[in-house]
């Protein structure tokens, strides 16, 4: 019976039906046991119930009986239960991505007709869920020595303006929508005070993305280009497309690519003009970028050291631009390449030219903003600490220095300035990456977006932390005559440093190549599986040229460098293949006599050094002192003066062959790890080149603590040109 009355606007009729064993839908979802249908009574122009009238209401499920489905899953293979973001790992190579993804399934279907499906929109949010204290405690292993890094929240972790917003439309075909998240670089902290210094330096004032700091014009000076550029703070940087040092003091430096030695001595094997990545003659300083050219990261040994890398045009000039985050800068090395845009069989584009970016606090004068080579008033280095730093085992691992060291070659009175560190030097430290956690919340809406359905989901976001322990100092290595660095070693054993980047895994090839192929593949170390005495002791094919690092190469590849009657033995004409920063070059072989207390130009073997017990080594062989089994001090002017001392740390070298392994050591490992080596710019006859060797030569008997171990010093030590060895620069000016 209906009571006659006017029907209110919000009056509803509701019927609940209960069914037995409702079963599951096609996706395995449990169907509801009860179904509730409702509808407005005031409908079909019926505004009131009148006396004497009969009203018939029909119950139908065709409009309101919907089952809502809403699921969110992450990118993990173990059930897709979380959004997992990449973090540096213990793997030797890492091709990392700063992205992660999640997938959402959102729709509704009729309970009585599952073929009727409608998409339901959804939204995601992480607001307020990602705050995380990084000053200590919990799972954040950061040292308290970094007060500028206190909190990580959503604004410094997730960038929302990526390819897709944090929302979706759902899919009526019941499929998942995949959405990407872009994550900012890991924050990094280390226990090396120099890294903290660099993170505390302000970027250079007045420089922005639109107006980056030009690394070829440090401190506002005239342009000086190089294959290596040094940075000591965060900010926006750029450099021009120029072959090595082909521009000097603002002008074309043709001597860098045109040989200056006009000798007709066929034994010299001089290359009249240096060549490019296609083995074509270089005719000018500037590199022409094809229309499809782009800037790419080759590798870096510090995670996310270089970011926002691109080829761009600034003030009408093609430049490579990149960014270094002030919060995560640390000592490290990166190789940046200009590629031509074409594709090879390996899917990579050939490299036209590449440059080494070295982050260190040791190389730049803090006042002038110039490399020390351009600071003529700085004749010797200054120490930041009065005593040498030690590692947790109490072993001396180095002394913080800045500036260059005045060195005199006592035999003939020649003087020069030597850098305090090897190229690509990184001090021993622990590198700590923050573990970051958060949640992503999801909400489903009705198809028209008018209201929430009540369905929600949630996924954890996880970015694992990592601690990398570099117990000893390390540097990069170079094959003789090549311009590109090879990564260093993790410790004094044979563990190579972790490197990151798309070309990092391509490391060692057992073949020889020409110069153009070497330029195209700056990430490859070319070695051999052939025995000693073969042509494969050189990385270069039989067209070897002696002027790759010195365009005024000596008139004899076997004459010793003490001979004042031959001035060309002391020549230093830097080439576009020289890997040194602006203002520096690889030293001539004669420079290395500074490490040896006495020598004779009448006995050739004396130049190559020898093996002596410690007492003999200290008293009469080394021009300096022994700090410990891995570190040595050399007097710059022959006197015991710490203000004119060079420090050498044993970082070994990479062997020249991967098949023939003396003492079990191959190209992928550190041979002579207790010895400090350095190349000179001068080749030796055959497949060798001159260099320096100084250290405890334990590889002679494989017993580091054996009384038969002998110390070694070699001022003109000869090694195969395919070896990877450090470089210690001298000033060009």
Question: How many DSSP E strands?
Answer: 52
Strand content: 25-35%
Principal-axis shape equals elongated
Low-confidence blocks of residues: 128-151, 383-388, 602-606, 700-704
Structure overview:
The chain has 733 residues and is mainly beta. Helices cover 4% and strands 33% of the residues. The chain contains 4 helices and 52 strands. The strands form 19 sheets. Strands 5, 8, 9, 13 and 15 form a 5-stranded antiparallel beta sheet that branches. It is elongated.
What features would you highlight for this structure?
single chain, mainly beta, five-stranded mixed beta sheet, 4 helices
Brief characterization of the structure:
This protein is mainly beta.
Question: What is the strand and helix layout of this fold?
Answer:
Elements (H helix, E strand, L loop, with lengths): L4 E2 L5 E7 L15 E7 L7 E2 L16 E8 L9 E3 L7 E2 L4 E12 L6 E3 L2 E4 L6 E2 L17 E2 L5 E2 L7 E2 L8 E7 L4 E3 L2 H8 L12 E2 L13 E4 L3 E6 L6 E2 L2 E2 L41 E7 L6 E8 L2 E8 L7 E8 L11 E9 L22 E2 L5 E2 L5 E3 L2 E2 L1 E6 L4 E6 L9 E5 L2 E10 L6 E12 L2 E5 L7 E2 L19 E2 L7 E2 L5 H6 L4 E2 L57 E2 L18 H5 L1 E3 L1 H8 L2 E5 L2 E5 L9 E5 L3 E2 L15 E2 L3 E10 L3 E9 L14 E10 L3 E2 L4 E2 L2
Parallel strand pairs: 6-35, 7-38, 17-19, 18-26, 39-40
Antiparallel strand pairs: 1-4, 2-3, 5-8, 8-9, 8-15, 10-14, 10-34, 11-12, 13-15, 16-33, 19-24, 20-21, 22-25, 23-24, 25-26, 27-30, 28-29, 31-32, 33-36, 34-35, 37-51, 41-52, 42-50, 43-44, 44-45, 46-47, 48-49, 49-50
């Amino acid at each position: 019976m209906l009571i006659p009355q006017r029907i209110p606007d919000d009056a509803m009729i509701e019927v609940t039906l209960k069914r037995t064993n409702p079963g599951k839908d096609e996706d395995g979802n449990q169907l509801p046991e009860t179904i509730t249908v409702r509808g407005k009574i005031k409908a079909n122009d019926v505004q009131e119930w009148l006396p004497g009238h009969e009203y018939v209401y029909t119950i139908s499920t065709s409009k309101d009986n919907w089952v809502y489905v809403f699921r969110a899953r992450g990118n993990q293979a173990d059930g897709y239960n979380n959004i997992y973001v990449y973090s540096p790992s213990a793997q030797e190579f890492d091709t990392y991505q700063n992205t992660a993804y999640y997938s959402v399934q959102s729709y509704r279907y009729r309970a009585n007709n599952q073929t009727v499906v409608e998409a339901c929109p959804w939204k995601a949010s992480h607001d307020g869920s990602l705050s995380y204290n990084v000053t200590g405690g919990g799972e954040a292993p950061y040292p308290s020595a970094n007060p500028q890094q206190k909190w990580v929240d959503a604004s410094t972790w997730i960038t929302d303006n990526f390819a897709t917003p944090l929302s979706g439309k759902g899919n009526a075909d019941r499929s998942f929508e995949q959405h990407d998240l872009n994550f900012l670089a890991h924050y990094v902290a280390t226990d090396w005070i120099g890294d903290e210094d660099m993170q505390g330096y302000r970027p250079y004032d007045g420089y922005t993305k639109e107006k980056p700091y030009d690394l070829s014009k440090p401190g506002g000076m005239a342009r000086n280009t190089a294959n290596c550029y040094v940075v000591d703070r965060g900010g926006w940087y750029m450099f021009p497309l120029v072959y090595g040092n082909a521009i000097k003091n603002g002008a074309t430096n043709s001597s860098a690519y045109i040989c200056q030695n006009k000798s007709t001595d066929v034994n010299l094997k001089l290359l009249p003009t240096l060549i490019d990545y296609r083995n074509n003659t270089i005719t000018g300083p500037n590199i022409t970028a094809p229309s499809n050219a782009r800037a790419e990261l080759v590798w870096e040994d510090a995670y996310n050291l270089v970011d926002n890398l691109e080829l761009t045009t600034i003030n009408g000039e093609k430049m490579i631009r990149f960014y270094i985050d002030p919060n995560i800068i640390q000592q490290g090395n990166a190789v940046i390449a200009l590629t031509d845009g074409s594709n090879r069989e390996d899917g990579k584009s050939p490299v036209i030219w590449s440059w080494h970016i070295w982050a260190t606090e040791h190389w730049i004068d803090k006042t002038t903003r110039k490399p020390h080579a351009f600071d003529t008033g700085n004749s010797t280095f200054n120490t930041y600490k009065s005593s040498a730093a030690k590692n947790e085992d109490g072993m001396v691992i180095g002394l913080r220095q800045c500036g260059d060291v005045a060195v005199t070659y006592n035999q003939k009175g020649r003087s020069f300035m030597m850098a305090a560190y090897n190229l690509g030097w990184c001090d021993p430290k622990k590198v700590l990456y923050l573990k970051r956690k958060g949640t992503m919340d999801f909400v489903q809406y009705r198809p028209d977006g008018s209201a929430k359905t009540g369905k929600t989901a949630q996924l954890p976001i996880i970015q694992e932390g990592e601690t990398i322990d570099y117990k000893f100092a390390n540097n990069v290595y170079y094959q003789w005559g090549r311009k590109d660095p090879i990564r260093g070693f993790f410790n004094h054993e044979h563990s190579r440093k972790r490197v990151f980047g798309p070309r990092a895994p391509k490391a060692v090839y057992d073949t020889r190549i020409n110069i153009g192929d070497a330029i195209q593949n700056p990430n490859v170390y070319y070695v051999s599986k052939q025995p000693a005495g073969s042509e494969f002791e050189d990385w270069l094919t039989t067209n070897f040229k002696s002027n790759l690092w010195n365009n005024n190469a000596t008139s004899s590849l076997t004459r010793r460098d003490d001979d004042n009657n031959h001035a060309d033995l002391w020549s230093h004409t830097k080439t576009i293949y020289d890997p040194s920063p602006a203002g520096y070059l690889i030293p001539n072989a004669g420079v290395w006599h500074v490490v040896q207390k006495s020598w004779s130009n009448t006995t050739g073997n004396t130049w190559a050094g020898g093996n002596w017990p410690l007492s003999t080594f200290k008293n009469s062989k080394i021009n300096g002192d022994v700090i410990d089994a891995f570190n040595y001090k050399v007097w710059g002017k022959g006197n015991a003066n710490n203000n004119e001392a060079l420090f050498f740390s044993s970082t070994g070298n990479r062997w020249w062959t991967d098949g023939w392994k003396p003492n079990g050591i191959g190209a992928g490992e550190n041979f002579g790890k207790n010895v400090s080596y350095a190349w000179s710019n001068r080749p030796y006859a055959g497949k060798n080149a001159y260099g320096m060797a100084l250290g405890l030569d334990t590889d002679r008997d494989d017993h580091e603590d054996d009384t038969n171990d002998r110390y070694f010093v070699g001022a003109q030590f000869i090694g195969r040109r395919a070896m990877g060895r450090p470089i210690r620069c001298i000033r060009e000016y």
